[in-house]
Amino acid sequence: MKKAICYTLFLGLVVLSACSRTNSTGTTAAEKRAGYQVLFDGTDLDQWVGNKTDYYIEGRDLVIDPKRGGQGNLYTKDEYSDFIYRFEFQLTPGANNGLGIRTPLEGDAAYVGTEIQILDNDAEKYKDLKEYQYHGSAYGIIPAKRGYLKPVGEWNTEEVYVKGSKIKVTLNGTVILDGDLAEASKNGTADHKDHPGLERTSGHIGFLGHGDVLRFRNIRVLDLTKQ
Question: Which region is the signal sequence (predicted)?
């Protein structure tokens, strides 16, 4: 009898644990209550516009393969101002991509919008980059802390919080960037380049390919202007 009770309790805990986590295609119950919108559930790209040639669905993952002959980036259909954006990503060796925020559909999103770097920090070819070019950094503006990426081939979880000029990036449960874009650039940007996108208060969110294969999944967003 005790064994049966223990086994039942064990199964219950397993179910509760599973329910508390985000699955590979949706949101947790807490996220649903909070109002998160699923942008990619592994079945279609209806919430996206742009390069749907290089960005495609494979095994319920969103994959980018630049060798497929497409051009440009993949952007959310809608624009966002203040938001929390959550996603998972899997790097390949030497992979380089980016997350554009508050960006228009045309132009270099790192400058006409703002880019959060997605990068295999440990690749030999990136050993001499500037500190503001590594993963999680607001490209050219604010550097992120390093050392929190999982080994290449494993899935990473990331959250990007944007409200006004404040930005926070959390990678695998650790805050790697917490700063103010306006404050960081008031005397010029770290890369000494023009970033007109810093003046934008809304725009699209997008994945910015740089010629490498990556996978993404479980993409959702919370529009903070509706809270």
Answer: 1-20
For the chain, domain boundaries:
25-226
Provide the residue type at 118 as one letter.
Answer: I
The answer to pTM > 0.85 is: yes
3-state secondary structure of 19: helix
Q: Which residues contact 56 (CB under 8 A, 6 or more apart)?
A: 62, 63, 65, 68
Write the CB contacts of 22 (distance below 8 Å, at least 6 apart in sequence).
28, 31, 86, 218
The two three-digit tokens of residue 92, written as one number: 């390949």
| Model confidence at 11: pLDDT above 80 | no
- How crowded is residue 172: how many other Cβ atoms within 10 Å of its Cβ? 14
CATH class for the domain made up of 25-226: mainly beta
Q: What is the mean pLDDT of the chain?
A: 91
Mean pLDDT of 184-197: 98
State the Cα–Cα distance between residues 19 and 106, nearest whole angstrom: 40
Identify the band that residue 210 occupies on the pLDDT scale cut at 50, 70 and 90. confident
CA-based Rg of the chain, rounded to a whole angstrom?
19
pLDDT band at 199; cut points 50, 70, 90 = very high
Grouping H, G, I as helix, E, B as strand and the rest as coil, residue 129 is coil
Which residue(s) pair with 79 in the sheet? none
- 107, two tokens: 């132009």
For the record, the structure tokens of 113 come out as 């919008």
- Chain centroid to Cα 191, Å, comes to 22
Tell me how many degrees the CA angle 196-145-183 measures, rounded to the nearest 5: 35
